[in-house]
Amino acid sequence: MKMKPLSSDLPRREFLTRAALALAAGATLPAAFGADNDPAAAGERPLIVSTWDFGKASNDAALKVLLGGGTILDAVEQGIWVTESAGIGTVGLSGTPNAAGVVQLDACIMSGPGHTAGSVAALEGIRHPISAARRVMEKTPHVMLVGEGARMFALEEGLESIETHAAEHYEAWQKQRAKLKAAAQDPKATPKNHDTLALLVLGADGNIAGGCSTSGLGHKLPGRVGDSPIIGSGLYVDNEVGAAGATGLGENVMRFCGSFLVVEYMRQGLHPQAACQEAIRRIIKQERPGKQLSLNFVALDKQGRHGAATSEGQFPYSVTSKTDSRVQPGARI
Ligand code: ASP
Q: 17 CA distance to ligand 1 centroid (A)?
């Protein structure tokens, strides 16, 4: 479906402001204001986008849920189940353990209608943290539960649990710390084994929801929480505008409320692609030149336009509609 150029809805001065912003973000005008040269399935509904190539299997499952009459939240939750169970080593209980040898999981979910959200962090031994997050949203007056409290809640809710914790892990962590100190390694050094599934769904009725799930940074300090379960950092959904999700080094995303920032750029009129790029540029501007930031954003707007961008390397993202399901490259800054 071809979308009406946004420019025709706007007073001239506002249009020019948006055009300037879009160009500053490195976008070409057609990419920023129309869907003519959008990539796969732009403008279609329902539409699902997610981070990385492994997101495609989750997208496909989410589409099936929608076509079977499920809600956008069902699609987010059940789509994410697929990657949480896939054994990819960075999402779900197959994730890399923390420095104490324990896998601690982070997840969140957000619904555009009602602007509701739920999240869990440092959750141990629960097979589907995304389901725990959804239950926090739907069954408690809270937005976020962490650690043992989150685990007790998930167990009370009857979510599947798997024993992963062992007391000896603490000793292993102490030994590792001692070794790091002895080797005088940078205590702030961050390991590389990490990824997040962030999945965004635009329903046939134009409503939006999203979720994300990760085991966070491999060998992180016990209790470390990344961007993924923080609403506005790893994920943000605004039913009037669109949604965005993040993957990469959480510490660099959460200091800038990354996903919220991307959605705000879309609110100002930027195409999702340009919004992702502009958010990364803004973060880069405030960081030490040359610093490796590992920032990746994916975004989807109400019109079914989508995009993704990365600060370095490659960032494939997955796009799925009724007519197409594919992995395509995000833009490199
Ligand atoms: N953002 C996640 C975290 O920092 C990891 C990732 O997406 O690569 O926990």
A: 34
Residue closest by Cα to atom 8 of ligand 1: 195
pLDDT tens profile 168-177: 445 555 565 5
Of these residues, 51, 83, 90, 196, which one is catalytic? 196
Which ligand 1 atom is at minimum distance from the Cα of 51?
A: 7
Q: Is there a catalytic annotation at residue 320? A: no
Structure tokens belonging to residue 145: 């539960």
Edge-first strand order for the sheet with 316-320 is: 144-146, 116-123, 105-111, 208-214, 197-202, 47-51, 316-320, 325-329
Residue 16 and residue 19: Cα distance in Å, rounded?
5
pLDDT digits (tens, 9 = 90+) for 66-121: 999 999 999 999 999 999 999 998 999 988 889 888 999 999 999 999 999 999 99
Q: Token pair of 131, please?
A: 């389901």
CATH tag, 20-332: 3.60.20.30
Which residue among 219, 228, 252, 311 is best mutated to probe the pocket of ligand 1, counting the most ligand atoms within 8 A of its Cβ? 228
pTM of the model: 0.85
Full DSSP string of 208-241: EEEEEEE--STTPPTT---STTSBTTTEEEETTT
Q: Where are the domains of the chain?
A: 20-332
Distance separating alpha carbons of residues 262 and 245, to the nearest angstrom? 9
The chain-wide mean pLDDT, for the chain, equals 86
Task: Check pLDDT > 50 for residue 28.
Answer: no
